[in-house]
Amino acid sequence: MKHVKTLNTVKLQNTIKKGGCGECQTSCQSACKTSCTVGNQSCENK
Amino acid sequence: MVHQYRNNGYNIVLDVNSGAVHVVDDVAYEVIALYQEHTREEIQKLLSHKFDAAEIAETYEEIKSLKNEHSLFTEDAYENYIMDFAKRPTVVKALCLHIAHDCNLSCRYCFAKEGEYQGHRAMMSFEVGKKALDFLIANSGARRNLEVDFFGGEPLMNWHTVKKLVEYGRSQEERYQKKFRFTLTTNGVLLDDEVAEFCNREMSNVVLSIDGRKEVHDRMRPFKKGRGSYDLIVPKFLEFAKSRGQQKYYVRGTYTHENLDFSEDVLHLADLGFQQISVEPVVAGPKEPYAIGKEDLPKLFSEYDRLAAEMIRRHKDGKGFQFFHFMIDLEGGPCVAKRLSGCGSGTEYLAVTPWGDFYPCHQFVGNEKFLLGNVEKGIVNTELCNQFKSCNVYAKEKCRTCFARFYCSGGCAANAYNFTEDICGVYEIGCELQKKRVECAIMLKAAMQQV
Description:
The complex is a heterodimer.
Chain A: E1 4-6
Chain B: E1 2-7, E2 10-15, E3 20-24, H1 26-35, H2 40-47, H3 53-68, H4 79-86, E4 94-98, E5 100-101, E6 122-123, H5 126-138, E7 145-151, H6 159-176, E8 179-186, H7 193-202, E9 203-209, H8 214-220, H9 230-243, E10 249-255, H10 263-272, E11 276-281, H11 297-316, E12 322-323, H12 336-340, E13 349-352, E14 357-359, E15 373-374, E16 378-379, H13 382-389, H14 397-400, H15 405-408, H16 413-420, H17 428-450
Parallel strand pairs in B: 4-7, 4-13, 7-8, 8-9, 9-10, 10-11, 11-12
Antiparallel strand pairs in B: 1-2, 2-3, 5-6, 13-14, 14-15, 15-16
């Protein structure tokens, strides 16, 4: 496309099918103990 | 829902419900803003004074195609899915073990009140810790990866027990087909070669507490008699980070109203040689002199912008570093269920006191209203667990219309409770900072792709 550059190809709606396994890290076990951050975590079910 | 913003020269369009991120030119930015409420002809007319008609038409077709591909103006179809997801039987997969309710520092902002959590000084015994690990194994269902964080107070004040519990956990892995991921949070005062060697062998992540510049760190993180701790810990942390290959650790600081220019602290840590950095806003009641107020937000926003721009510059110069709150995984990030169902406190994640009581998370420890059970009896207060289970973004009115809900999962229940007396409340200052960080993080992704 000339006017739009899309940075990612993965669509969240597609993760409904096989998501929710729960093997990924609990958010507060990473660095933060005072805020909730999930966007930076990685899926372990790829 | 679409969130559009301009940052550091980039026009960014986030399609909230699909997670698609688009970097667009000026004409597309304006066409997207008008697209849902106006016809093609109206858009042509509204923008005719700014852009060429053929260019508007071409852009319109591109936007239409993105919408058809479900990458733009995607509907939120997740509410029923998340509500059903919340009803599933949950298992426990992570524990925060309060291995020591005592500390050798006297940090002014400590939510643990110098390690004691409104209670008395105490150390967790091996027996209590062992029962906690047994509880975790027994209640983790089919989950393979189990997380155990050694927290305090200062966990190195009870180091012998930490080592014994790691050894015990490892001894159970094969039998129960589990894999423990141990982590440790320390102020570094007691960090030595033996601790470092053990951590490098056994700990999947270590959080090293340091606030940044010497004067900032020492003002907030003194020893009990007032002397600062910076000079003691910095050489140890540098050596430790090097010994871990600059990976699987964070130097983690807290910024407050007293150092609103916190980007200087982040850059100071980078200048020292640390490559994994997290500096986060203090969470404190409004009466504390160091608490962050709404009036601080414009300054803090500009600090995040400044930090992001400087990170791009350093990345180009080969001196890049990671800033935890700007890390975002656009391709391999968590599924929708993870993003929208909350942090897991009170359900998948529990804190354990030195004497074996369970609380929804480390920040609730000491508040008896949130006592869930203990290592002997397990979870007793199931009603409270259910309240935490149902606390997701759809239970919070303000989250429903917020573009950042897929990145913060509805925020921290403890912060919400501390400011609104409701775990499903909203801590607005925290939300504003979170939104700014998400914007900067996405801008960084756009910028890095051009490097």
